[in-house]
Amino acid sequence: MTSIKRAICNQCLRPQNTCICRWIRTTEHAVEVLFLQHPLEIANPKGSARLLHLSLPRSRLITGEAFSEEELQALLYAPFDNSDSGKKIQPLLLYPDTSEDGRIEKSQTFIQPASSATIQYRLIVLDGTWRKSRKMLYSNPLLQQLPRLPLSDPPASHYRIRKARKPDQLSSYEATCYALMQVENETEKYLPLLTAFDGFVEQIGAYDPQTKHHQ
C-alpha cells in the first residue's frame, strides 16, 4: 500500500492541517534572540521556539547540541546581517543562576546597566527540556562563560500541554518573552505574543487527548 505524504507548511514546518502560522505576531524588538534548539525538539509538536522565532524578526534558530568553538563564537558575536551598527554585541544566556538544589552556579549574573547605547544585547535561549538544555550548556564551554539572565519573579506557566516539575518552569516561548520584557523594560509590547501563545497551547491541546483530560 502506497503511503500518502502529508502537505507541510513551508513556514512553521508542520502538516498543513495542524499549521500554527495563525499565531504568528510579528513584533519589533531591540534585543536580538538566538535560539539554540536541541535536535530532538525539531519534530516535537508541542515545541514553541519556532513559533516565537517566526514572530521575532531579529532572531535566529539554530539546531544542534554540541557546537565547535569557532561556530559558536560566530553565532554569539557575529552580526545577524550585513549591517554594522557599530555596537558591541553582548550575549546574555537565558538560564537560572542557581542549580536545581539551590546552589549558586559559577557564572556571572547579568546586571542591567544604566545605558546600553553602545551595546547590542543578544539573548541566548537553549530550547529543550531541562535535562537537554543542561547537557547543551555543559557540552559548550563558551555558553558557560556568558553572563546569565535569570528571570525576576515570572508568573506561572500557561504551558499545560507539557509536563513541568515546577510552576515557574516556563516554555522557551514564555521565558523569552519575559526576558525581553525584563531587558527592554517593556511589557505591553509583548502581551500580544503571550495571548497568541495561549491560542497555540489551546490548538495543540485539542489534538492531545491526555492534555484535554488534565485541563
Largest sheet: 4 strands, parallel
The first-to-last residue Cα distance is 39 Å
Shape: globular
| Major β-sheet strand ordering | 2-1-4-3
Domains counted in the coordinates: how many? 1
Uncertain stretches: 211-215
Q: What helical percentage do the residues reach?
A: 25-40%
Query: C-alpha Rg, in Å?
Result: 18 Å
Helix-strand makeup class? alpha/beta
Strand content: 5-15%
* Overall strand count: 4
Indicate the mean pLDDT.
Answer: 85
Number of helices: 7
Helix and strand run: EHEHEEHHHHH
Structure keywords:
215 residues; alpha/beta; four-stranded parallel β-sheet; 7 helices; 30% helix; disordered C terminus
Overview of this protein structure:
- With 215 residues, this protein is α/β, with parallel strands linked by helices.
- It has one domain (27-98, 116-156, 165-207).
- It is 30% helix and 12% strand.
- The chain contains 7 helices and 4 strands, in the order E-H-E-H-E-E-H-H-H-H-H.
- The chain has helices spanning 49-55, 69-77, 130-139, 141-144, 172-184, 191-206, 209-214, and strands spanning 32-37, 59-63, 88-93, 119-127.
- The protein has a 4-stranded parallel beta sheet, with helices on both faces.
- Strand 1 (32-37), helix 1 and strand 2 form a beta-alpha-beta unit.
- It is globular and about 50 Å long.
- It starts with 31 loop residues before the first strand and ends with a helix.
- 30% of the residues are buried.
